[in-house]
Amino acid sequence: MAKLASGCPSDPSAAAAAAAAAPIADPPALILVATPIGHLGDLSPRALATLRGADAILCEDTRVTGGLLVKHGLSATMIPLHEHNEDAQIPRVLERLRAGQRLALVADAGTPLVSDPGYRLVRAAIAAGLPVGAVPGPSAAVMALTLSGLPPHPFLFLGFLPPKAAARATEIGRVRAAERAGLAATLILYEAPHRLAETLAALGEGLGAERPAAVARELTKRFEEVRRDSLGALAAHYAAEAARGEVVVVIGPAPPETTSAATLDDRLQAALAAGLSLRDAAATVAEATGLPRRQVYARALELAGT
User: Fold this and answer.
1) How large is the angle between the packed helices 278-289 and 165-180, nearest 10 degrees?
2) Which of 183, 234, 266, 281 has its CA 20 to 30 A from that of 246?
3) Are 215 and 243 in contact (CB under 8 A)?
4) Which tens digit of pLDDT belongs to each residue from 22-31?
5) CA–CA separation, 252 and 213 (whole Å)
């Protein structure tokens, strides 16, 4: 039996794995690297190779990223880049990139920029004509969407709602106005566990307590949970049983709204009685009902007898 030539791997799968883990030749100057959202085994071979080959790693918290690197046997220079220092760091980072360094950008967990720092840096790098690339990977928002049992597309990612009640209600009102104007999308948002119950209650009040929703928490971790119910029922559950861990809320699309002719007339007459002009009354009612403004204005003219 002929022997294999020295240096040739005997296992094709091992060769493929070795190739995937090898440093990437001439990677983009700034590489956005997705990291695990919980299970450390979700760091891809390509992400590992990119982190290994980077001159430095830009990270939210050096303790979090440092722990990830140690788990994978890596040692690297880490540069803090977070919400409070991003603007100050941008000139220094751009100077490193212009000098030919290869920098990796990571968040504490998941895909960079998705409710995490880095957007301003990426915009500055693009504006400066510097190459930007990415290594795809985990995203809590997308994983929660796929597990929710709700329509996967179209979807609208809202990030975190404002923590204060008044500002949160205003933001929810904006979403509801967009839905009345025709938006029909599954909504995804992040929330801190200690605010989950009150946020679900606010969402139920603003969007409808019967809207189907799901709360996904501790994704990819030992105590992963996805609870599916209405917004009202979920709010009651988490008011009685406090949530723990990282949380994603997914809300089904708004149901189609039908406005009867009688309801439209009542709304228009109320707006006119309040002293609004025909045009303003029609605009107000159109926004509230989601009906075309031209249609509502034409009916307002009929009611006014003009």
Assistant:
1) 100
2) 183
3) yes
4) 444 455 699 9
5) 6
